[in-house]
Design goal:
- Helix content is 27%, strand content 26%.
- The chain has 369 residues and is α/β, with parallel strands linked by helices.
- It folds into three domains: 50 residues, no CATH class; 167 residues, Rossmann fold (3-Layer(aba) Sandwich), CATH 3.40.50.300; 131 residues, no CATH class.
- A six-stranded mixed β-sheet has the order 4-3-2-5-7-6, sandwiched between helices. Strands 9-12-16-15-18 form a five-stranded antiparallel β-sheet, with no helix packed on it. The chain has a five-stranded antiparallel β-sheet with strand order 13-10-11-17-14, with helices on one face.
- The longest helix has 14 residues.
- The relative contact order is 0.12.
- The structure holds guanosine-5'-diphosphate.
- Guanosine-5'-diphosphate binds next to helix 7.
Length: 369
């Protein structure tokens, strides 16, 4: 029987096959650790050596336990969401767990949005969506964990709203929570020193406590996996293609009814009925878009998925979920959102269909731009 080994940093049971879960350490690191008698999980190793926080995902039950804890604390809750995948960022039922604590909603990755997008409109939209979810944030703001100069406002707001209390940072996986916290650590030098010198100030299985200068803590909690994110159907290489790294350059298509756009092999947009007009695609600049005739689109997809239409890659096609169709009748300027991938803006009345891999949502929202 295999011997059970525990991380000496956080106490997690060491495992070598699930990189996103608790206690993961690469096999080679485990062997080295065993030789020296000090086995750390990768999360603790990175925290110790690089002052870098790496998120782990929790199972639903553990996550519920953690959420329950939130209501019992007196703290500011910072809910990080990915503005590129707002629906995929929602923590289901968060409002039921937070008690009387204020929530600051932070929309991350603002760097990838086209400059033409009005930020006020986006925060207003986020606020409305939050209300629909039963959440009443004290404030909604946009930031980018990639751009230190975008972080100042966030730091000031956290200071203002925490009002001498602890801060819990929560978010589903992939929203950029770790990147954001790492940036916060870098920006607040005093804290950085504390982390370097101390032996994991408060790393436990399910959270990392970063000391603030008034005796309180900024607490990083693990993310929960949101199954409807496109990210879960793709490999690491494909994720690089679909996750925008730079400001998105909108792509404009003049289409007649009866035309189809393929977003790689991941999604499909059919213009079924309506006057000729322009459609604007907002997706990663690296994702290629193909235009074809609607009547030939099924055949085209069968023939080219994994080839001309990538991702998925040729070796992923067999495992890749089939595309599922959602039909919409559009009356005013509307975004058709392919969760985690981007959106297509429809500016005139039309009947359209959006297709996404089974399990991934296609939805509409009032146009952001
Ligand atoms: P976590 O699972 O929420 O901790 O997410 P990570 O911090 O691991 O980030 C998920 C992905 O989003 C990574 O590929 C990051 O590089 C990327 N990311 C994080 N913050 C930003 C940001 O502000 N802008 C952009 N463009 N990408 C970001």
């Amino acid at each position: 029987m295999e011997e059970e080994i525990y991380c000496i940093g956080c106490g997690a049971k060491i495992q070598t096959d699930k990189p996103k879960e608790l206690g993961y350490t690469p096999q080679s690191a485990l062997e080295k650790g065993l030789e020296s008698g000090e086995v750390y999980c990768q999360r603790c190793f990175r925290l110790r050596h690089y002052n870098e926080i790496q998120d782990v995902a929790l199972t639903d039950d553990d996550f519920l336990r953690l959420l329950n804890e939130l209501g019992k604390t007196d703290a500011l809750i910072v809910n990080v969401v990915d503005i590129f995948d707002f629906n995929g960022s929602i923590i289901p039922g968060l409002h039921r767990f937070i008690g009387d604590n204020p929530v600051l909603m932070v929309g991350n990755k603002v760097d990838i949005l086209p400059k033409s997008l009005k930020k006020g409109r986006l925060t207003q939209w986020m606020r409305e969506r939050a209300h629909e979810e039963g959440l009443r944030p004290v404030d909604v703001l946009l930031t980018s964990a990639r751009k230190p100069n975008e972080m100042q406002e966030l730091l000031a707001k956290i200071e203002e709203y925490r009002d001498g209390r602890d801060v819990y940072v929560v978010g589903v996986t992939n929203v950029g929570k770790s990147t954001l916290i790492n940036q916060i650590i870098k920006q607040t030098a005093g804290v950085q020193d504390l982390i370097t010198t101390s032996q994991f100030p408060g790393t436990t299985l399910d959270k990392i406590e970063i000391p603030l200068d008034d005796g309180h803590y900024l607490i990083d909690t693990p993310g929960i996996i949101h199954r409807h994110q496109m990210a879960h159907y793709l490999g690491a290489k494909d994720l690089k293609i679909i996750a925008p790294h730079k400001e998105i350059k909108p792509k404009v298509y003049q289409l007649n009814a009866g035309q189809t756009l393929f977003l790689g092999g991941l999604a499909r947009f059919d213009f079924i009925q309506g006057d000729r007009s322009s459609f604007i695609a907002y997706v990663s600049n690296d994702l290629s878009i193909h235009r074809t005739k609607l009547e030939k689109a099924d055949e085209f997809y069968q023939k080219h998925v994994g080839g001309l239409l990538q991702p998925p890659r040729p070796d992923e096609v067999d495992e890749f979920p089939e595309l599922v169709r959602f039909e919409f009748s559009i009356k005013e300027k509307t975004d058709i959102v392919f969760a985690g991938l981007g959106w297509v803006t429809v500016s005139k009345p039309a009947v359209i269909a959006g297709w996404a891999p089974k399990g991934v949502d296609v939805l509409t929202r009032k146009s952001l731009i």
